[in-house]
Amino acid sequence: MDSVFITAGFAALAIVYGVYRRYSHISLADVPGPESASFTMGNLKELYQGQAADADFKWQAQYGNIVRFKGSFGEDQLMISDPAALQYIFAKSAYRFPKPPDRRVLSHFINGKGIVWAEGDDHKRHRRIMLPGFGGPESKAFLSLFKTAPSLNKWTETINNSKEGSVVFNIPVWLSRATLDAIGEAAFDVRFSSIDDNESALARSYRNIIRRAKTHVSWRMRDTGKLATSVAKQLVKDKAEMILRGKGSRDVFSLLGGSSQSQYGYDAKAKLTEEELFAQMRTIIFAGHETTSNTVSWALLELARHPEIQSRLREEIWETESGCARTRGCQLHNR
Fold this sequence. Notes:
By secondary structure, the chain is mainly α. The protein has helices spanning 2-24, 44-49, 54-63, 83-92, 101-111, 120-130, 136-141, 149-161, 171-188, 201-215, 221-244, 252-263, 274-305, 307-327; strands at residues 66-70, 76-80. It has 14 helices and 2 strands, in the order H-H-H-E-E-H-H-H-H-H-H-H-H-H-H-H. It has a two-stranded antiparallel sheet with strand order 1-2. 21% of the residues are buried.
């Protein structure tokens, strides 16, 4: 009997909390958006089970750059694509828009207490420490690492070896491998060799992390986080051995480590703890290479859908290369 009363009490508490949240928050009823498909799922099925971005573009075309749609159990959510609003939310007044608690929990499981997880003054400290590794001069120095030549060489080799003379490539997978290699070199001066057949054990370990993060539910994320930390620790060990052999370089990890110790002296509040350092490394690899490969994949898809724009882009590249060749002002690449 007691269990019945306890269950009923929790149910009543949940209802009261739901009513409180609905009437204590700013109403979004006047914001246009699609009709809810169901109370339990709202518009989430159309948003997440359709083709990528189909619902997003359809709603944007119908309702504009700010769309209200329903989440689970009638919760109002906003889809914002207005450039000025996004600049205000993510740049100008970012600290007025804290991350959702559930998103922070998931981020903690995957990447630890790094900059993606941090909020408020703690986030500002992380930004100050990481900034020297991502400034303009540092980014330009890493530009040569982010190239597609290894992938193109592999594609050409595969096509030449095929009997049909044509091959279907999984572009996102190949770009993920290419960007992982680039992030490894730029961030940690480590050769993952994901594009080659002799992929390193470290690269395989991290690719396993990514697969587990994408396919397992959140209660398995803690194990994924432990594996990611072990990879980060191995990177620290490898980097330390390279420095001892006099083979260190100006990669992001070296700049990050230097800024967290030398620039801010010995103030513990202005440095990264060991846990935070590992979390930043996990964040740079996981978030850095996947977001880059996804962006390039989307760009290639849009170029394939619009061959006229693809032709214009190709002509602009050729014209730029020709100008570089005449003035010798930049490096000429193969077409």
